[in-house]
Amino acid sequence: MLGFLIFMIVLLLIFGGVIAGIVFLVRAASGAGKKHFADVSTALLPLIAGTAQGEKLVGTYAGTSVVASIVVRAGSSSDAGGQSNEYFFMTTLAAGPATADWSLAYEGDGLLHSGQKSWHLKTKDRDLEARLTAAGVLAAVAPWTDAAPTITYRAQDGALTATSPRSFKKTWPAAAAFANHLAVLGALVACNRAANAAGSAAAAPAAST
Question: Which of 42, 112, 135, 152 could hold 191 in an S-S bridge, CB 3.0 to 4.6 Å?
């Protein structure tokens, strides 16, 4: 009986030690994550004259509101033991209205996106596609080829979002890379507004006849 009690006490001590170790590791990881975000925000926030809200960077660029954050999604199973998370850095600017959704993707020109890569503008509104092309969206996005994101515009809320390629760790961009994000997206916002203005100008004579 005494031997059994000693065994149970030892077992409980081991179990308690394991739990304490897990709690310590979780707290250490949380603290490291907060410190990393503090360092990141110190470098990036001046570029948008912004503030940190949770782990989002909120501010303005060239008079346009900006929100930047990392989104995590559950990925496919990495092995028999479980799943690996996928991380995406997303930057959203208020781009003003348009008549339809549109997107830009850096992909191959051939079948199944094979062959030489280039930027492709996609939208179901052919008139908008022509106006965006004339406004220079492809020229505006042309410098962005290294780790090129997917760029989407939603007409419902006027939001223009760049979503980075997936990463398997939480990686914020360096200040220089974020500055490039903002410059390209700012140019695309200007293109969207120009295309919208051209559409409104074309619609005005038709409405008056």
Answer: 135
